[in-house]
Design goal:
- With 336 residues, the chain is α+β, with helices and mostly antiparallel strands.
- The chain contains 8 helices and 13 strands.
- The strands form 4 sheets. The protein has a 5-stranded mixed beta sheet, with no helix packed on it. Strands 4-1-11-10 form a 4-stranded mixed beta sheet, with no helix packed on it. Strands 5-6 form a two-stranded antiparallel ribbon.
- Strand 7 and strand 8 form a beta hairpin.
- Helix 1 packs antiparallel against helix 2.
- The relative contact order is 0.14.
- Keywords: Dioxygenase, Iron, Metal-binding, Oxidoreductase.
- Its cofactor is Fe(3+).
- Pfam families: Dioxygenase_C, Dioxygenase_N.
Length: 336
């Protein structure tokens, strides 16, 4: 009987001979063996990753001790992660990568609200509250009323937008940083009304340090960088057909306004708090003299953002002299 060898093809049949690899030929050979991937985007990502990693090692003449220290650093980041703490997001933040990726993927059309970093303390258990509700349980915080709207680029109000809101307590800690947390606090989810309005009661945000008791904090210390973030409130907007917006509002005059540890501050997101007057206090059921945050947010449609993103991608790739095409709005090599 003749054996059917159709499905017994050797897994090494099409591999290049990986022998006698050196500083000069390890990179193209690694790229070549990875190029067996059928996913064009994955193939491209891995080729560029390997190229830049190898060039970094060659350019810096990376020592074995430094290489091992880097691996141990990543291991330490993994070990300290938990359901409520993600050291890798924090690392991405302090390296400026989080903001860079967000700006690439969610460019802001003229008139739109700029994005900012998500940060490592967003959760999915925030209570859904009615407009006008209080999201704070902190008796030490300075009361703040927030009156906001969300509109499109033409100024039309957007109803039914889901808004995720979160901030620290008056001690500068998010609820998930407290070991005795038994329920969400200083966070909520709301919906904009028919006029695009949403409003809530919180507390005046305070400056706070990012978690610096782990490997990322030690890295900042080695770099002589402080771990502080300026006072801010996070917002996350979502609605079908609209580009999701992750942003924050930062208090004007904060001592860390121009040196945010995670590079999140943009001048268009810096706001100055006012004070609640008698009429507003009566209308919204708060004390006169409380802090007042007022802001108008502007969203763009997915189509508007994708068109801008594609145009900027093509322009940037042309500047780099790369022959690329866009597939699902992502660049892959243009093959002859």
């Amino acid at each position: 009987m003749t054996e059917n060898t159709t499905n017994n093809k050797s897994p090494t049949a099409n591999l290049p001979p990986l022998l006698d690899l050196t500083i000069d030929n390890i990179t193209p050979n690694t790229i070549r063996i990875n190029s067996q991937a059928s996913d064009a985007r994955l193939k491209y990502l891995m080729a560029r990753l390997v190229t830049h990693l190898h060039d970094f090692a060659r350019e810096t003449r990376l020592s074995s001790d430094e290489w091992m220290a880097a691996l141990q650093f990543l291991i330490s980041c993994g070990k300290i992660c938990s359901d409520v703490r993600n050291e890798f997001i924090l690392l991405s933040d302090v390296l400026g990568l989080s903001l860079l990726v967000d700006n690439i993927n969610h460019p802001t059309p003229p008139g739109g609200t700029e994005g900012s970093v998500l940060g490592p303390f967003h959760t999915h258990d925030a209570p859904v509250l009615e407009n006008g509700s209080s999201m704070t349980s902190d008796p030490e915080g300075e009361p703040m009323l927030a009156l906001c709207t969300v509109k499109d680029l033409k100024g039309n109000p957007l109803a039914g937008v889901t808004i995720d809101i979160w901030e620290t307590d008056s001690s500068g800690h998010y609820d998930v940083q407290h070991a005795d947390r038994d329920a969400p606090s200083e966070r909520c989810v709301m919906k904009s009304d028919e006029e695009g309005r949403f409003w809530f009661k919180g507390i005046k945000p305070v400056s706070y340090p990012i978690p610096h008791d782990g490997p990322v904090g030690k890295l900042l210390e080695r770099l002589n960088r402080h771990p502080w973030r300026p006072a801010h409130v996070h917002f996350k907007f979502e609605k079908d057909g609209w580009d999701p917006l992750v942003t924050a509002l930062y208090l004007k005059g904060d001592p860390y306004e121009s040196s945010d540890a995670v590079f999140g501050v943009k001048m268009s997101l810096v706001v100055e708090l006012g004070k609640v007057d008698e009429a507003t206090a009566k209308e919204y059921g708060v004390k006169e003299g409380s802090w007042l945050l007022k802001h108008d947010f502007v969203l763009s449609t997915k189509q508007e953002t994708e068109e801008l993103r594609d145009r900027l991608a093509v322009e940037e790739l042309e500047k780099l002299g790369l022959r690329m095409k866009l597939v699902d709005h992502l660049p892959v090599p243009e093959l002859d």
